[in-house]
Amino acid sequence: MKRVFNFSAGPSVLPQSVLERAASEMLNYHDTGQSVMEMSHRSKAYDDIIRGSEDKLRELMGIPDNFSVLFLQGGASLQFCMLVLNLKRRGRAAYIDTGVWSQKAIQEAQRWLEVDVLASSKDRNYSYIPQIDSVAGDYDYVHITQNNTIMGTKWASVPDTGSLPLVSDISSCILSEPIDIERYGLLYAGGQKNLAPAGVTVVIIRNDLIREDLPSDIASMLRYDTHAKNGSMYNTPPTYSIYVMGLVLDWIKANGGAQGMLKRNQSKAKLLYDYLDASSYYHSPVDAYSRSLMNIPFLLRSENSDKVSVLNKKFVSEAAAAGLVNLGGHRSIGGMRASIYNAMPIEGVEALIRFMDVFAKENPL
Ligand SMILES: *Cc1c(COP(=O)(O)O)cnc(C)c1O
Question: What span, in angstroms and rounded, lies between the C-alpha atoms of 191 and 232?
Fold first, then answer.
């Protein structure tokens, strides 16, 4: 069977060696005679798996001892709510609006507190990251979306928030490059972009932000202290996703860790951005200094919207037929989008560019 190059924004491509390993361990994990899927989460074998995944994540991301790592469920979307309930004190927070996911985070936060949107790139359809060097004020926290999966932007450097906790949604860039955890109070990521199959959400939180004196009407499952005290085993964790995450982390380690991922991702992204910038057929809608390494939208250079919409559809379907799948752009931006997460090999990007070249020649604008 031939595998495709999968450019999906998420759930997304996993390293082939990880899938092979998971397959080889499917029926009998390490002589337990069981699949990890069938295992009690209270068993010794599973305890080794979940603690192993945490240890590897700590090592690869350089997570200091004064931070807790939680493996939760509910996706990044539940964190839009949970972080508010847990970090709210005085009742005001600062958000920076860089696209769809920031907006969702803002809308959710507004249920419980007053949100100051300090800056927004909505004026140019989120094609850049606003320049914000520092934030101060009477805020419980400051929230950013580190990599904007839909618009294809990322923060080149994050604002200095002094003593205010910086909270960042790193769903689509976790472990794509080194990150200085100490600059943040809380980081969160749905696993299904760069880390694991869907089901697990990673929360990395500075311990002094895990409060035990929360209002009593906050459900146990929505309190970080519940999960921190119980090693992410207050209830049944997403056992299989956490296991596959461990395999992905082994793969990242074997490929040079976060620094190795950065080099790999830079060379893939450069190939595609250089091609787009030199093309008279395609272009990137994103300002050069804000470009994502992970999600790369591209549009056709034509003002004829009827023609563009026909050609976009043709591109996506012919690419799929050629084994390059999930290249449709998000409806808010149109065109195409290639998500090239850690596990996308450079051969995938090379094949995409070859296809783009042929398509441009066969379909003049
Ligand atoms: C995918 C994504 C989300 C939503 O994640 P879920 O796990 O589906 O809730 C939130 N933020 C960003 C940046 C994303 O890429």
Answer: 15
What is the position in ligand 1's atom list of the atom closest to the CA of 148? 13
CATH number at residue 128: 3.40.640.10
Instruction: Find the mean pLDDT for residues 9-30.
Output: 98
Indicate whether 4 belongs to any domain. no
> Which entry of 101, 140, 154, 155 is annotated as an active-site residue?
101
pLDDT, mean over the chain: 97
The alpha carbon of 149 is separated from its chain's Cα centroid by a whole number of angstroms, namely 7
Strand partners, 187: 168, 204
Active site residue 169: yes
Segment 201-260, tens digit of pLDDT: 999 999 999 999 999 999 999 999 999 999 999 999 999 999 999 999 999 999 999 999
Q: How far is the CA of 188 from the centre of ligand 1 (A)?
A: 10
The verdict on pTM exceeding 0.90 is: yes
Measured in Å, residue 75 CA sits from the centre of ligand 1 at: 7
Report the separation in Å between the CA atom of 101 and the middle of ligand 1, taken as the mean of its atom positions: 7
Q: Which domain holds residue 273?
A: 257-362
Q: What residues pair up with 92 in beta bridges, in sequence order? A: 114
Q: pLDDT-based confidence at 154, cuts 50/70/90?
A: very high
Ligand 1 lining (C-beta closer than 6 Å): 10, 75-77, 101, 145, 149, 169, 171-172, 190, 193
Give the number of other Cβ atoms within 10 Å of residue 300's Cβ.
23
Residues 229 and 291 in one domain: no
Domain at 289, CATH number:
3.90.1150.10
